[in-house]
Amino acid sequence: AYERRFPTCPLIPMFVASDTVNEYKSEDEAIHVIERRCKLDIDAPRLLKKIAGVDYVYFVQKNSLNRRERTLHIEAYNETFSNRVIINEHCCYTVHPDNEDWTCFEQSASLDIKSFFGFESTVEKIAMKQYTSNIKKGKEIIEYYLKQLEEEGITFVPRWTPPVACKLESSTFHTRRPISPAINIPDSAAKEGLNNKEILNTSSSPSEPTAGTPDDKLDADYIKRYLGDLTPMQESCLIRLRQWLQETHKGKIPKDEHILRFLRARDFNIDKAREILCQSLTWRKQHQVDYILDTWHPPQVLQDYYAGGWHHHDKDGRPLYVLRLGQMDTKGLVRALGEEALLRYVLSINEEGLRRCEENTKVFGRPISSWTCLVDLEGLNMRHLWRPGVKALLRIIEVVEANYPETLGRLLILRAPRVFPVLWTLVSPFIDDNTRKKFLIYAGNDYQGPGGLLDYIDKEIIPDFLGGECMCEVPEGGLVPKSLYRTAEELENEDIKLWTETIYQSASVFKGAPHEVLIQIVDASSVITWDFDVCKGDIVFNIFHSKRAPQPPKKDSLGAHSITSPGGNNVQLIDKVWQLGRDYSMVESPLICKEGESVQGSHVTRWPGFYILQWKFHNMPACATTNLPRVDDVLASLQVSSHKCKVMYYTEVIGSEDFRGSMTSLESSHSGFSQLSAATTSSNQSHSSSMISR
């Protein structure tokens, strides 16, 4: 009866749809576990949905039916905004121990709101309202489907009995992607680290903690099944790094397999691994890499002329990627698509590789954390050494090396021509020493002899173009028609578009040189909202108001007012001759924000005019020395420069009409934001304040 509420239930209007993402059945049919991704239309105020940037929220639900024990366990947690709000729910149906005609039902839930744009109390109220409503309707819904079964003549289900010849229990995984179309994740929602593939222990994303793993010790069976052989020292490094991330990282904690890759890449030097892992997590968040498989679709040119694709697995169970580089028109692809599109396509290949590693870990019952790449160089010539193409290749190698360490298990280079040493000389300095050790290079037909391809790949799956019997569906490549080429200006605009799809901007803050953003307000009682991450260093956040506009940044050769750096821009708007209290005023108390913090807030404007948001360098006080480094000490040690900070920020202004129109649904909330809003709608003596949350 419970299963009949899926994929959607007319008795639950907010339950819009659901997709099965993972299913497990034991051979004797005693155990049946099914996981679904559920789409919900939460009854929330329009303003809150607008600020959050989402129309629907997603939950992951895991139902575990044990016919042997006669129990049904239901677990659910939120996927949307999981780094801000944590919701966990557990339900259990069991047979009463004293009367088998009775069914016992237990339900519990927890809610932890870390931050939500200053609307914490509103979100808590909405969550409690939805939960109370669900409890009241739960019995009604199950009775509705029980009655439906009775009307169909189903009044009895035989009790499970073990098979006569009971075999050892084995499992079959049926993993598939959701059948619904790809989801277009709004930028502001993407900022929250939404990951529509994070599903309990079967997640393909690197950003989900593995359930059931103790914080101070790793279970031996868990290590053997998912991580491989670890020495006590290596296990200790993994636990320490994970605990540090739990204390400092704002968002989902990466899975142990992902953390382990970075530790192995730095020979388990925990300080070095911590630094590159933090840089990679910031990079993933800024460029929304977690959603690339669902939100970005390769252009048709890539699908037709990029001669690469996945092809079964090698003898060790690693996913096998085949690249016919010699048949690929690298110059044509760069001229038709640009460097950024090629980079994004390679990133999508790597993300798919991580997903396949997880799937193969389940299938083969042992940890598989890397893949094998087979590169066929037949046809490689001087055309492939075109300088912009080599430049694009070097950049791709650099990005992949930094963010996907220890994912390449083996690289088989076949049919290397005479021109190959030239290409190798160009690219090898950019490849990590540990990675280079995994390269096996075969000239001519050497791959067909002893120590060749058959040592690593089963004969049955050797591609047909290498003399095997397996048809390989990898595109054959070929020359890209020149009619598809685009001008340098078009490619430049496309490159900018690809990597600025995030609504967040980066800025550098220097000692003595704050970064400032100007916002012009026409209507009083408008709302300025902001959301920023402090990526490096400590800063002080201020908000100022001025009746007159500051002078635009000067474009002089000295760059005194506008500084451009690789980490972002630095713009100064407040003239040095301006005096605080005369030319401009402070409308908020200064807020000190430490490295690694995410800050969200809002400000109701009292007057029209010009508002300046300022991020200013803040000197970190010295920390006392202890046996174990404190979080502040570690963060300070990661700073490349003691006089430079970095922030990633987003601001938006909500008009007074939209703001006032939503007040009736927020007035009963106890958040500082809604109390202030009520004041602005009921009194002309409005005042300026903000709700800032971390």
Automatic annotation (TrEMBL):
**Organism of origin:** Steatornis caripensis (Oilbird)
Pfam families linked:
CRAL_TRIO, CRAL_TRIO_N, PRELI
List, for all copies, the residue spans of the domain called GOLD: 500-653
Q: Which GO terms describe its cellular component?
A: cytosol; Golgi apparatus
Where the record annotates domain CRAL-TRIO, the positions are 298-474
Q: Which residues cross the membrane?
A: none
In the record, what terms sit under GO molecular function?
A: RIG-I binding
Keywords associated with the record: Cytoplasm, Golgi apparatus, Immunity, Innate immunity, Phosphoprotein, Signal transduction inhibitor
Q: Where is the PRELI/MSF1 domain?
A: 1-154
Q: How does it assemble?
A: Interacts with RIGI (via tandem CARD domain); the interaction is direct. Interacts (via GOLD domain) with SLC18A3; the interaction is direct. Interacts with SLC5A7 (via GOLD domain); the interaction is direct.
GO BP annotations of the record are: innate immune response; negative regulation of RIG-I signaling pathway
Gene it is expressed from: Sec14l1
**The protein's name in its UniProt record:** SEC14-like protein 1
- CDD domains the record matches: SEC14
Please give the function described in this protein's UniProt entry: May play a role in innate immunity by inhibiting the antiviral RIG-I signaling pathway. In this pathway, functions as a negative regulator of RIGI, the cytoplasmic sensor of viral nucleic acids. Prevents the interaction of RIGI with MAVS/IPS1, an important step in signal propagation. May also regulate the SLC18A3 and SLC5A7 cholinergic transporters.
Q: Kindly list the places in or outside the cell where this protein is found, as annotated in its UniProt entry.
A: Cytoplasm; Golgi apparatus
- What SMART domains does UniProt report for this protein, alphabetically? CRAL_TRIO_N (SM01100), SEC14 (SM00516)
